[in-house]
Specification:
The complex is a heterodimer. Chain A contains eight helices and 21 strands. Chain A is an alpha+beta fold. Chain A is globular, with a radius of gyration of 25 Å. Chain B has five helices and no strands. Chain B has a single domain, classed as Four Helix Bundle (Hemerythrin (Met), subunit A). The chains are: A alpha+beta, B mainly alpha.
């Protein structure tokens, strides 16, 4: 997709979007509700009239200006958020539905092959209402892949599943997509889902602009602006001015990576909760802290604390640590910052 | 196989020629991977990185000469690709022994070319096409 612009009336929803999805790769559009990501999928599928830009699959331009191939001729598989299975058709007939160009016997064989791939062949004669959410999702995936599309579009494909089911189904979905070597464009508002599924992530912000594009590790460890950094949850924040190339804090001088930041500039450092580490000694430097609360979440804990001394004395922070925090054994505790989880931005961003 | 179809042309000869050369090298690398010639693949990656850097310099000079207002932003974008090029070079050192490294390298190259190079260049396409059509184009960098 190249140079896609789209607006509803005067409201811009997509602003100069260009992206490529190679065969066998999964590109994820990550952004909040209403940022235009589903509109982009609908444009690719031909369900929304293209207003500007072009869409090419393999070497065929399928939409550019007024020339737009109808959806059924694009060879694109679309999996909707609610799966959109036909309630009056069996599982098998739902999958066969997209194979209307093939004779019944060939279509049936292909549908059974796809149901086998997604582990649903034993449910072929059932109807959608007889299936769990996860099973319906797998049927929808089989239906999307059965016609051997050149591109598969996934719109929030796991959002209706409970936590345990979601983890299992997304692994299965990824495996099946990779087995079929199909190019996949997925949209989600869930950053962890995007991190798990995607080869590349594109973060969409206000008015449908791509704010950052990169590997999952780039998005997490090198967020280009505050908005992207905050996608993964609440951050700790320290504001200050640059002195001798760094920002002085109770945790020591936080080094600033951007060489263009000048002395005296107002900067903000955001620190991920997992980027603050507690210790019982101050050998590693850091700030003495007072623990305010600890909440066990299962595999990790959120600990709130207050800094006891230095520039940020009295300020509250929070951290995430593996396992439980033992409130019965605490003496003097120090906190330090892991620089890999601290990001610096201009304060006026 | 990567190919620059018409939609991905910037319509400025010097830039499109460079992009085609980069794609040629990528295709040589991926062909070497497919043909199980990892040594050839490892040899070609530094060529790709060197040519990429030369291309970035040429492109920045062209944008500068034509007064592209966001040249600094684009220069910064090029600088941000250093890490990715280092990753490619590191993967190239492992491709002989590691199929996983070959797969990762293929992925890096394709996304680098299509996303980080060509798609980002789309931002200045209309400006540069207009500027160069007025006879301002210089490609002497």
């Amino acid at each position: 997709m190249v140079g896609i612009h789209h607006a509803y009336g005067t409201t811009k929803v997509l602003n100069n979007i260009s992206l490529t999805v190679p065969a066998g790769e999964l590109v994820c559009l990550l952004g909040p509700s209403g940022c235009g990501k589903t509109t982009l999928l609908r444009i690719a599928a031909g369900l929304e009239q293209l207003q500007a830009g072009s869409v090419t699959i393999d070497e065929t331009v399928i939409a550019e200006g007024a020339a737009q191939l109808p959806p059924e001729e694009r060879r694109i598989g679309f999996m909707f958020q609610d799966y959109a299975l036909f309630p009056h058709l069996s599982v098998l007939d739902n999958v066969i539905f997209g194979l209307f160009r093939q004779d019944r016997r060939t279509a049936r064989a292909r549908a059974m092959e796809m149901l086998d791939q997604v582990g649903m062949v034993q449910h072929a004669e059932k109807y959608p209402h007889m299936l769990s959410g996860g099973q319906q999702q797998r049927v929808a995936l089989a239906r999307a892949l059965a016609p051997e599309p050149r591109l598969v579009l996934l719109d929030e494909p796991f959002s209706d599943l409970d936590t345990n089911m979601r983890a299992r189904i997304r692994q299965q979905t990824l495996t099946v997509l990779k087995q079929n070597n199909v190019a996949t464009l997925m949209v989600t508002h869930d950053p962890k889902e995007a991190m798990f599924m995607a080869d590349r992530i594109k973060v969409l912000g206000d008015q449908g602009r791509i704010l950052q594009s990169g590997r999952p590790a780039d998005i997490y460890y090198k967020p280009t602006d505050e908005y992207v950094a905050r996608l993964f949850g609440p951050m700790n924040m320290i504001d200050g001015v640059v002195e001798q190339g760094g920002l002085k804090s109770s945790f020591g001088t936080l080094a600033l990576e951007d060489p263009t930041v000048v002395e005296g500039a107002a900067v903000r450092v955001l620190i991920r909760p997992e980027g603050i580490i507690l210790s019982k000694g101050d050998d590693d430097g850091g700030a003495p802290v007072e623990i305010l609360s600890a909440h066990l979440l299962g595999d990790s804990s959120i600990v709130r604390f207050k800094v006891r001394s230095g520039i940020n004395s009295g300020s509250e922070f929070h951290l995430r640590m593996p396992g439980a925090f033992d409130l019965t054994e605490i003496g003097q505790i120090w906190a330090r910052v892991d620089p890999r989880h601290a990001f610096q931005y201009p304060q006026n961003q | 196989m990567v190919e620059i179809t018409r939609s991905f042309e910037i319509e400025v000869e010097m830039i499109d020629n460079d992009h085609r050369r980069l794609v040629e090298i990528i295709n040589e690398i991926t062909q070497a991977i497919d043909d199980d010639r990892p040594e050839e693949c490892a040899r070609l990656v530094p060529d790709f990185v060197t040519f990429s850097k030369q291309h970035f310099a040429r492109e920045e000079a062209l944008l500068e000469k034509n007064g592209y207002p966001q040249v600094d932003k684009h220069r910064k974008h090029h600088a941000s690709l250093d890490d990715k090029m280092k990753t490619m070079e590191a993967l190239a050192l492992n491709v002989v022994d590691s199929p996983a490294a070959r797969d990762a390298l293929r992925k890096e190259l394709v996304f680098f070319m299509m996303d980080d190079v060509i798609n980002e260049d789309m931002d200045f396409k209309s400006f540069l096409v207009q500027a160069t059509s007025k006879g301002n184009e210089t490609t002497d960098g």
